[in-house]
Write a structure and sequence with these properties.
The complex is a heterodimer.
Chain A: H1 2-26, H2 31-41, E1 57-59, H3 64-77, E2 85-86, H4 89-98, E3 104-107, H5 113-121, E4 126-135, E5 137-140, E6 150-151, H6 152-159, H7 168-171, E7 181-185, H8 190-198, E8 210-212, H9 215-223, E9 228-232, H10 234-238, E10 245-246, E11 249-250, H11 261-265, E12 272-280, H12 281-286, H13 288-307, H14 315-329
Parallel strand pairs in A: 1-3, 6-11, 7-8, 7-9
Antiparallel strand pairs in A: 3-12, 4-12, 5-9, 5-10
Chain B: H1 2-56, H2 62-66, H3 79-110, H4 115-127, H5 132-146, H6 153-177, H7 181-189, H8 194-222, H9 226-230, E1 234-236, H10 251-259, H11 264-295
Classes of the chains: A alpha/beta, B mainly alpha.
């Protein structure tokens, strides 16, 4: 008697869990066909990628919304090919790309020299494609009526760790003597890297800035403080236009440009930056599914990027991409 | 004599009442402090729940459960994440239960008390406090890369079971330790072997405690994002796992992605997703409560 009741409990519990799992799987349209062959063939195909109809994509969280949209549309047309997307960050994604685990890696920055060397060592050939443009938007609180533009020099003065600017009046004497309340993306972010490299000339970001890896936190910070200044991806500005004021930026003494899909697309906005995806040449060459996906991505990324809040790259970029894909596919 | 006696006792009486009232004040003050601590945590919980409920409840929909993720928040659902989380639990629950209870039984009933086992005990307790990312890195190195399981449901489940194992061991040991010695000795007196005693007396008696600990530990595992992301869980998947080697996404990963999006609609469905995961947790915890009340024995 006792023995029975003891072992009933865990058995029943695990059965209940199993049953609910099966229920979950059953809701999936066409799921049963897949799972019927799954158990037996599972052990042989223990790899996570390869020619199993799966395309392995990983990388930057900034590029993710674009690739998610591409995969979503791609799978509507090719139901038997799965194209899931992971988010390991640009750097983490390259690590997996170097290990040969992924076919495509999304990156919000160019591949680094170390990563190039590692790929050479592993004898992995790759191709870089520019998928879309993002514009790093410098924004202030809407209540701020004195800042009408910022130059790169001023931004450097504000954000560089070498500078001792503490108040707005330190930047421009006409501006009020209010303390700078700074917001910036954290060091893990590609936006941070781009800003440091191109605006600060490689200097460290000031320690006075509140940093966060979550751009929404930066948006809330700037929206909540009248003397605030922050920078983040364009989509975070365009979704919160009522709570923020974008500051036109200039990298020399010419007229400052405000970010918009048009000024980012034609690169007249100085802080426009390209977003990339890198594909493994051998995947495109050997696997028709991957080739089809890469071509599909190149054809649709611009339009889909605009839909999710980024800007398309100029048409010439996509034409160039096509030639690169042709070359890699050996056509 | 009689007179004097009364004064003394009167003085004592007054002194005593003074002391007593002081003690009563302390008594009340301490009660107040405890009540404050309780009220604070409950208040925080209520604020959190209200915030999530008011933001998310309007966005709870059937679509959220049966659709895959999408770039359009209106069409987006968490089917892949929901299925992924259930698969992870299917792997992690039985495994961590068997390993955890086995370890606890060995340590409480068989292991000799010496320096080595004491060291082992301290280390297991310490393991319960190791940040979950560290377990993720362990899972990435061993299950994903070394054993070649890839970023699969199996690798994820194994990683999560490692994560909750120390908690289950500690909880199970407490439960086994609480089994009265008389009952065990009575069993031996009847001529039962150690195995029979453990199997028929110790485990059944401590089962409510063990299961409560296990379910609470698994409830923690359900909400973990970091270790799963580290072993390579995906964020966008348009299919549910078909076997143990499928790649997957899980609910906390999906919610994390949505909260980070610039569009407010995504933050709203993230709140709705949080409500779903809270309901799952609530369901699991009520199983724990049910088991405890149903099977609890008092000696």
């Amino acid at each position: 008697m006792k023995l029975k009741t003891v072992w009933m409990v865990p058995t029943l519990a695990s059965m209940a869990v199993f049953a609910s799992a099966c229920g979950g799987g059953g809701e999936e349209p066409g799921g049963s066909e897949e799972s019927s062959g799954g158990e037996g063939s599972g052990e042989e195909s223990s790899g996570q990628e390869g020619g199993s109809g799966d395309i392995a994509i990983d990388g930057s969280s900034t590029v993710f919304p674009i690739m998610e949209a591409v995969s979503e549309e791609f799978q509507k047309e090719n139901e038997d090919i799965e194209a899931p997307v992971g988010v390991s960050g640009s750097g983490g994604g390259f690590e997996r790309f170097i290990e040969g685990e992924t076919d495509l890696n999304n990156a919000s920055r160019e591949i680094s020299e170390e990563e190039q060397e590692a790929l050479e060592e592993e004898e992995i050939e790759y191709t870089e494609l520019t998928m879309a443009y993002d514009g790093i938007t410098v924004a202030v609180n809407p209540e701020n009526d004195f800042v009408d533009q910022l130059t790169y020099d001023q931004l450097e003065q504000i954000y560089s760790d070498d500078s001792d600017a503490e108040t707005w009046s330190d930047i421009n004497e006409e501006w009020p003597d209010e303390e700078l309340d700074l917001y910036a993306p954290g060091t893990d972010s590609g936006t941070h890297d781009y800003f440091v490299e191109n605006v600060l000339g490689g200097a460290d970001l000031t320690r006075n800035a509140s940093t966060s890896e979550d751009d929404n936190t930066l948006v809330n910070g700037v929206a909540g403080s009248e003397s605030a200044l922050g920078f983040f991806g364009y989509s975070y500005y365009s979704e919160n236009e009522d709570d923020l004021k974008a500051v036109p930026v200039t990298d020399d003494d010419e007229e400052a440009v405000e970010p918009s899909p048009e000024t980012i697309n034609d690169e007249s906005y100085p802080l426009a930056r390209p977003l990339f995806t890198y594909f493994k040449n051998s995947s495109v060459e050997d696997d028709e599914d991957v080739e089809e996906y890469v071509r599909f991505a190149n054809e649709n990324a611009g339009e889909l990027a605009e839909e999710v809040g980024y800007a398309a790259a100029p048409d010439s970029v996509y034409e160039e991409n096509e030639e690169k894909i042709d070359e890699a596919a050996g056509e | 004599m009689k007179f004097a006696d009364t004064t003394v006792s009167n003085e004592r009486y007054e002194e005593n009442t003074q002391r007593l009232s002081k003690r009563h004040i302390w008594n009340k003050a301490f009660k107040g402090i405890c009540f404050g601590a309780m009220a604070f945590s409950i208040l925080m919980l209520i604020v959190l729940l209200i915030r999530i409920l008011t933001q998310g409840i309007g966005f709870l929909s059937w679509d959220l459960i049966v659709n895959f993720a999408s770039r359009n928040a209106e069409d987006a659902g968490m089917l892949a994440a929901l299925a992924g989380t259930i698969w992870l639990m299917v792997v992690a629950a039985p495994l961590s239960f068997v390993l955890g209870v086995g370890t606890a039984v060995y340590m409480e009933e068989y292991a000799p008390v010496n320096r080595f086992t004491k060291l082992l005990q301290t280390n297991i307790s310490n393991l319960a406090g190791v940040p979950s990312v560290v377990f993720g890195l362990l899972g990435l190195t061993i299950f994903n890369r070394l054993l070649g399981l890839g970023a699969s449901v199996l690798a994820g489940g194994l990683t999560l079971s490692l994560l909750v194992l120390p908690i289950i061991v500690v909880a199970s040991r407490e439960a086994i330790n609480a089994v009265p010695t008389d009952v065990k000795q009575a069993s031996y007196a009847m001529g039962a072997t150690k195995w029979q005693t453990i199997f028929r007396i110790v485990i059944p008696t401590s089962l409510p405690g063990i299961l409560t600990g296990t379910i609470l530990a698994l409830s923690r595992a359900i909400g973990e994002t970091a270790p799963i992301l580290v072993i390579g869980a995906l964020t966008y998947v348009a299919s549910t796992p078909s076997d143990l080697f499928s790649n997957f996404t899980a609910m906390p990963v999906q919610i994390y992605d949505w909260t980070g999006r610039p569009q407010e609609e995504f933050q709203n469905i993230a709140a709705a997703g949080i409500i779903i995961i809270l309901l799952m947790l609530f369901f699991m915890n009520s199983i724990a409560v049910f088991i405890r009340t149903k099977f609890q024995k008092r000696f």
